Amino acid sequence: DYTKEIAVKKLPDVQVNKFGFRGPEIIKEKLANTYRIFTIGGSSMYSQDSLDDETISYHLQKKFDQYELGVKIEVINAGVNGAWFGTEKEMIKNKLVEFKPDLLLVYDGWNDLRFDVSPNELKENWNAICEIGKKNNFDVIISLQPIAGFGDKTLTKQESEWVKAGKSYSKKPLIESLSSYQHYAKNLSEINTCTKTIDLRNVFDNESETIYSDQGHVYDKGNIIVAKSLYNAIFPI
User: Fold this and answer.
1) d(C-alpha 210, C-alpha 103), whole Å
2) d(CA 166, CA 174)
3) What is the pLDDT of residue 50?
4) What is the dihedral of CA 155, 157, 161, 166, to 10 degrees?
5) Beta strand residue intervals within the chain, DSSP E
6) Which residues of the chain fall short of a pLDDT of 70?
7) Where are the beta strands (DSSP E) in 69-171?
8) pLDDT, position 3
9) pLDDT the model gives residue 46
């Protein structure tokens, strides 16, 4: 039961609906003239340190709501704290397909790296997720998330400390896995089974202020920037 995997941080205005998704209540049956998007990932997508109006999913929904598109866009936050490709794939197969999604937006990388997932294993599972999409008639976009020290952002003093403190689950410095993350990105660019792939490692390169709240989580401005990039990737679809 994936609803039990969500650890809700005690923050004001945190809402989890009856299906275990962070956000307002929804009905399981997709209404007519509705385009349903599920955002998938770990705590960075769940936005564990953010208020409800600061999550990536909230900002993405807000961008769609600005325009009259002739169809209702429904963005549902299916992020789960600690999720990686293994739990994501099972959740997609055993739960999300029942909600008749039109698009799955996968935001991966940090937890997979911390679990020491090999680049080839991750690529195989990204392909598997996209094959599930083809089988069930929904699009899949895979995105590789930014991590402090893994792009070309000029880091602030605090962000540099996050890089030094960042560890894998085997307690080794995560920055030592930089080459593996670069290999993740290379493999992502070679995937052709998905609707689209997007490399977000450098999404904060032009930001001089502190964006990261630790090595992988970001403050509200970071979520806004990520949401804008994801929106630009989604909209042509």
Assistant:
1) 32
2) 6
3) 87
4) -20
5) 34-41, 72-77, 103-108, 139-144, 196-199
6) 1-13
7) 72-77, 103-108, 139-144
8) 37
9) 94
